[in-house]
TrEMBL record:
<feature type="signal peptide">
    <location>
        <begin position="1"/>
        <end position="25"/>
    </location>
</feature>
<dbReference type="InterPro" id="IPR029045">
    <property type="entry name" value="ClpP/crotonase-like_dom_sf"/>
</dbReference>
<protein>
    <recommendedName>
        <fullName>Tail specific protease domain-containing protein</fullName>
    </recommendedName>
</protein>
<dbReference type="InterPro" id="IPR052766">
    <property type="entry name" value="S41A_metabolite_peptidase"/>
</dbReference>
<keyword id="KW-0732">Signal</keyword>
Length: 563
């Protein structure tokens, strides 16, 4: 079983590699490790009868339980020296390379965002002062500390403790009934008749309150509590192969981190009944690795100490693709979230057919690499442009197809467009801008860009010098726009000519205002005459908040165009 972490140890796709290049920078911390080592030492081999990892590793897949996985994880010994080295490496990355180190201290975010300020350096230092006896608990605390940033690009995962998926047989969602949001069972995969039942409590607490509290601690996807709730619950994801919207489990019911206990207690009230039904469901466990181990020692050597597979990131930041690893052949891969890299749908894993969904719209065109167009049955003047990803092999072809679809829609009588970005977890930064320009063409090359300045350290200065003209990382100055000279930087002056400012009580050096290389569509005559072009009243944006990275940039550009 080849192990890969469901949540990779990344600050961005390329940050770990960038940090490793800058090992000659003068810092007060050791250089970053090439991969997050487990803070352990090889144990003396226990006897077979008492070797928790041996029991786990030799169990057939059908006999893997929560208790076996937990026992193995918790049996791995802790080594304080390796833990200290690991922690200092992580502190180096966040202190020297994490762009949002200081902005994470923002005391009060604008609604609907609600995440509080996080001093990530202080949290990491607190972990360093804690006396640990468990390697698993140490890495778990590191993961939770970085999750608290609510930054989907900032994650830490020890592959040791992410080699199994834990699934509940319930797929939950949160409809609004009689003006009140509640938790209900969308699908009961064990066919016990619980579909549509209302979940009153989870582990003795109001179900909605319980899930929201869980997301506050365990989910990093957004600084908005509502978005985290949507991501924790059941959702739909477009499958271009079947041309169907498929239900997906949320992160509450499908986890890669070891859950708190072996089961969840629910109290249900089902339709046409007032009787409370108590249900206790144990976690169903699936292996997601192919490395063999038959003892604690071989688990440490083969799983914990085997470096994860990391793809080489190439191309400019605008054109960068996400890495999609291979999974165990028995578990289908679903591109639910490129940040998370993979997911498992429980109904597929146990060979149950997905629920059939009603279709109030007609497929208008052949799905492209990233988008599909529908026209509503009961409103033929309305079409839906669903963009399920910003990740594609050929952006020009995708844009050309969209232009043709939009023109044909107009010719068929469509007057209004719904842009549906639900479940889109990002991809190409360039597409974030060019897609929006199909509806709101640029008047200026810089119309749909994000001006900002970047925090700079000595490590970054050395790294940027090494990467100049390489187009292999975020610190190649030639990928950025020089506002003063009105062209891309030709030298490394962006990262060398810096100013010092104090933000939220912390002093740091910053570049001057810049932006990534603008992506501009040429003027397209056919778009100018469409009934929705530059008319926000004819366009609606649909999103459940699960719109990551470059998708979020598109939503920002669209909302800015409506002002």
């Amino acid at each position: 079983m080849v192990v890969f972490p469901l949540k990779a140890f990344i600050l961005s796709v390329s940050l770990v590699a960038l940090a490793a290049v800058a090992t000659t920078a003068q810092t007060t911390h050791p250089p970053p490790l090439t991969s997050p080592a487990s803070a352990l030492s090889l144990p003396t081999t226990p006897t077979a009868a008492h070797d928790a990892c041996g029991i786990l590793g030799t169990s057939p897949d059908s006999e893997i339980t929560y208790e076996k996985v937990a026992a193995c994880y918790k049996s791995v010994p802790f080594n304080s020296k390796i833990a200290a080295t690991t922690l200092e490496s992580i502190i180096t990355i966040f202190d020297d390379f994490y762009t949002f180190r200081d902005s994470a201290l923002t005391p009060k975010l604008t609604k609907p965002f609600s995440a509080g300020p996080v001093d990530i350096l202080k949290k990491l230092e607190t972990i360093g002062r804690t006396k640990y006896t468990s390697d698993h608990q140490y890495h778990h605390d590191l993961s939770l500390a970085i999750i608290s940033l609510k930054d989907a690009h900032a994650r830490y995962t020890a592959q040791c403790y992410n080699s199994y998926v834990f699934a509940q047989p319930f797929n939950l969602y949160a409809p609004v009934v009689n003006g009140k949001q509640i938790i209900q069972v969308y699908s009961d995969y064990q066919h016990r008749g619980y579909d549509g039942c209302t979940v009153q409590t989870i582990d003795g607490e109001d179900a909605l309150v319980h899930i929201n509290a869980w997301t506050d601690v365990n989910m990093d996807f957004s600084k908005g509590a509502g978005v985290r709730l949507n991501h924790a619950l059941s959702s739909l994801r477009y499958d271009p192969t079947s041309r169907e919207f498929q239900p997906l489990n949320g992160d509450f019911s499908l986890r890669s981190m070891l859950p708190e206990k072996a089961y969840i207690d629910y109290e249900l009230i089902c339709p046409n009944s007032t009787t409370t039904v108590p249900v206790r469901d144990t976690w169903i466990v699936f292996p997601i690795s192919q490395i063999k181990f038959d003892s604690q020692k071989s688990f440490v050597q083969n799983v914990c100490e085997t470096p994860p597979t990391i793809s080489t990131v190439t191309g400019s930041p605008q054109k960068r693709q996400f890495y999609q690893p291979e999974l165990h052949p028995l578990i289908p891969q679903v591109k639910k979230n490129p940040f998370k890299q993979a997911n498992v749908i429980v109904d597929d894993a146990v060979n149950l057919p997905p629920a059939k969904l009603s279709r109030p719209a007609v497929l208008f065109s052949t799905p492209g690499q990233a988008s599909v167009v529908y026209r509503l049955d009961n409103r033929p003047d309305v079409a839906v442009v669903h963009v399920w990803t910003h990740n594609m092999e050929d952006e020009v072809t995708e844009l050309t197809n969209l232009v043709n679809d939009l023109v044909t829609l107009s010719q068929s009588g469509v007057q209004n467009i719904i842009i549906d970005l639900q479940g889109n977890f990002g991809g190409l930064v360039s597409f974030a801008s060019t897609f929006v320009q199909l509806f709101f063409p640029n008047n200026d090359a810089l119309d749909k860009t994000l001006p900002s300045n970047l925090r700079v350290t000595e490590s970054i200065q050395q790294l940027s010098s090494a990467l100049l003209n390489s187009s292999s990382g975020l610190y190649d100055a030639t990928s950025f726009y020089d506002y003063a000279e009105k062209h891309l930087y030709a030298s490394n002056e962006l990262f060398m000519n810096i100013t010092t400012s104090v933000r939220y009580g912390r002093s740091a050096n910053y570049t001057e205002i810049t932006t990534l290389e603008p992506s501009v569509l040429p003027a397209i005559e056919e778009l100018a005459a469409l009934p929705w072009t530059n008319r926000a009243a004819n366009i609606r944006l649909l999103t459940d908040g699960r719109c990551g990275s470059s998708c979020a940039m598109s939503t920002f550009f669209l909302t800015q165009s409506n002002k």
